[in-house]
Amino acid sequence: MKKYDLVIIGGGPAGSTVASLTKRYSPALKVLLLEKAHFPRHHVGESLLAGATPVLKEMGAYEKVNKHGFLEKLGATYVWGQDRKPWGFSFNELNTALTSQGRRVSDVYTRAWQVNRAEYDQILLNHTVELGVEVHQGARVV
Questions:
Q1: Exposed, middle or buried: residue 79 (CB in 10 Å: 0-12, 13-18, 19+)?
Q2: What is the dihedral of CA 63, 65, 70, 75, to 10 degrees?
Q3: Does residue 36 register a pLDDT over 80?
Q4: Cα(76)–Cα(28) distance, rounded to whole angstroms?
């Protein structure tokens, strides 16, 4: 019977991120990730915000996501509140406004993508395997 230091249930972005960061900072740990589906699996698309960029860089997956060819986003628009009036910003406008005030947003917060979740999740899961995480797909946990 194999023994593991950490068992992660779920191979989506959260599970893959935890697995990747664990192996990057504690490479000697034995990490097992269990996923009930077989990737690539259908999942509703995802609009990443620029705040995901530092996390992707920290886990070592940024270049893979950046080079994949996902549609790059230039900003974000939100709708919420009682009046439901859309509001948003472009990353360039935000940087220009902050620069005029003598401040600047770090470059890591100026990139974001509209991703196909099946492809994005596969990239992240493959990355965990490359880092030495043992991944079992089709594993039902009860």
A1: exposed
A2: -80
A3: yes
A4: 40
The whole-angstrom separation of Cα 129 and Cα 134 is 6
pTM: 0.85
Q: Do 55 and 17 touch, CB atoms closer than 8 A? A: yes
Quickly list DSSP for 21-70: HHHHH-TTS-EEEEESS-SS-----EE--TTHHHHHHHHT-HHHHHHTTP
Q: Which residue has the tokens 């990737």?
A: 39
How far is it, in rounded angstroms, from Cα 76 to Cα 104? 18
Is pLDDT at 105 greater than 90 in this prediction? no
What whole-number distance in Å separates Cα of residue 35 and Cα of residue 21? 18
Check if the beta carbon of residue 15 is closer than 8 Å to that of residue 35: yes
Taking the C-alpha atoms of residue 34 and residue 10, their distance in angstroms, rounded to an integer, is 6
Report the pLDDT averaged over residues 62-67: 95
User: Cβ distance 15 to 8 under 8 Å?
Assistant: yes
Spatial distance between the Cα atoms of 8 and 16, rounded to a whole number of angstroms: 9
